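Tokens as discussed.
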């Protein structure tokens, strides 16, 4: 009895000890299982959501495996013309061909010596294939690679050609886009390069100071000059919603505050101006005066609304524009800022986005250049529909700015767009980029038809002269080509 009791005691003791020990082991097991499940789930989730980046990563050997199995897909214009394709010679050697040479150099890009443009943006699709199994069997039997998926872009060969030809030997950039969809129809940057010769010319391209590889449309930072009066005007309207119409200024060709003087372009004397005519004539003196009246902190907020010093909703490589306005700005800084000079810099693509938002009632559509991805046997693999990015301004503000931009055409610096079969709206700029020099970059940004905007055009021509004289005629050619056919 005693023995049994003892035995039972021992058992109880053992039980106690056992119930002490297994408990933490279970907790630890459960804990590690949970961590393991989380980790696996995360890896699955991450791989799924980032499959494009993972495949595109040059350290991933999967890219090489895919290229050994699939031939790189083609890139097409919006009307189905080949912009890039891979051909195979009789000995099985592949080469990447760009039938339009340097016409689409930056936007279509290249796929050797690194990748750029759409070749980089759509690399994942171009090296993968979505053809049916039966087609794969056929390809295997004939000993050919599987054809990669193809990219159908929104690019318009005719508009691209016009922009390219009109820029002629100048350096600069042209962007043509649809404000209602965000689709990019043309993007030219000069000087360019012939992507057919990229391997051969690589060393001289990367050592060149002509920056041929730089896409000036998205990466070129320029002083916005008078096109920046759009931003200054928006802030003035915001601060004076019921009285901006009462503004009056007498231009004598220059404006002085303290020791700082701002001159009108070529010292022109603009006489008596209201707010609208100050914008139409692009009077620097009047805008320096407007600039000094603005609330620095509020203007800073408006610049943030307009995506300055910020990310852009753009998948192509781009530079961030910069424009600063805060309480510590000096009088001189404020006058320079109001007319888009000083330290302010902007990419043509950013200006195109703001112009598109004005044309689209204040809402910026996310810029896109790919319409859809299709397999070689005609299946739509991925289709992109227009998406709203954000509202940059109210629809009232957009409509006031539209009226002001129509005024630039009717009575101001873009009069070369007047009296046509459509009504255009825009803003010119002649941005000085060297001190003590009258050299200027010619800018124009605008849209047409003003009452129902279909296309938006932004142009910069480096070192050409005035925007009205050099950039506006190019815009006219693009508007004509798009609206008159
Ligand atoms: Zn003036």
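Sequence:
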């Amino acid at each position: 009895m005693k023995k049994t009791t003892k035995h039972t005691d021992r058992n109880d003791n053992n039980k106690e000890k056992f119930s002490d020990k297994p408990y933490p082991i279970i907790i630890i097991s459960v804990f590690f299982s949970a961590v393991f499940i989380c980790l696996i789930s995360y890896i699955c989730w991450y791989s799924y959501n980032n499959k494009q980046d993972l495949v595109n990563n040059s350290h991933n050997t999967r890219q090489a495996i895919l290229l050994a199995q699939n031939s790189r897909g083609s890139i097409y214009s919006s009307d189905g013309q080949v912009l890039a394709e891979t051909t195979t010679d009789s000995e099985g050697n592949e080469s990447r061909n760009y039938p339009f040479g340097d016409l689409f150099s930056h936007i279509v890009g290249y796929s050797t010596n690194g990748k750029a443009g759409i070749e980089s943006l759509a690399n994942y699709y171009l090296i993968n294939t979505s053809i049916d199994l039966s087609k794969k069997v056929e390809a295997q039997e004939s000993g050919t690679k599987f054809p990669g998926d193809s990219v159908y872009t929104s690019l318009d060969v005719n508009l691209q050609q016009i922009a390219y030809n009109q820029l002629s030997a100048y350096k600069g950039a042209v962007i043509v886009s649809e404000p209602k969809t965000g689709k990019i129809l043309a993007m030219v940057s000069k000087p360019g390069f012939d992507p057919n010769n990229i391997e051969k010319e690589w060393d001289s391209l990367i050592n060149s100071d002509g920056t041929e590889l730089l896409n000036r449309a998205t990466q070129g930072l320029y002083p916005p000059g008078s096109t920046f009066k759009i931003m200054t005007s928006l802030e003035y309207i915001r601060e004076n919603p019921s009285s901006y119409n009462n503004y009056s200024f007498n231009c004598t060709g220059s404006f002085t505050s303290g020791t700082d003087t701002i001159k009108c372009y070529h010292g022109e004397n603009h006489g008596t101006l209201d707010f609208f005519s100050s914008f139409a004539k692009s009077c620097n003196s009047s805008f320096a005066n407007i600039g000094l009246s603005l609330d620095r902190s509020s203007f800073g907020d408006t610049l943030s609304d307009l995506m300055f010093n910020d990310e852009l909703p753009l998948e192509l490589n781009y530079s961030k524009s910069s424009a600063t306005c805060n309480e510590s700005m000096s009088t001189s800084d404020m006058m320079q800022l109001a007319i888009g000079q000083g330290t302010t810099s902007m990419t043509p693509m950013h200006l195109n986005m703001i112009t598109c938002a004005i044309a689209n009632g204040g809402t910026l559509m996310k810029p896109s250049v790919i319409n859809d991805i299709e397999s070689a046997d005609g299946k739509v693999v991925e289709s992109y529909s227009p998406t709203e990015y954000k509202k940059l301004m109210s629809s009232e503000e957009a409509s006031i700015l539209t009226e002001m931009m129509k005024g630039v055409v009717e009575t101001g610096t873009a009069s070369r767009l007047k009296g046509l079969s459509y009504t255009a709206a825009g803003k010119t700029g002649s941005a000085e980029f060297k001190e003590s020099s009258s050299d200027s970059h010619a800018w124009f940004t605008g849209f047409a038809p003003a009452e129902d905007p279909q296309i938006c055009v932004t142009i910069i021509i480096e070192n050409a002269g005035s925007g009205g004289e050099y950039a506006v005629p190019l815009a006219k050619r693009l508007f004509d080509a798009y609206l008159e056919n």
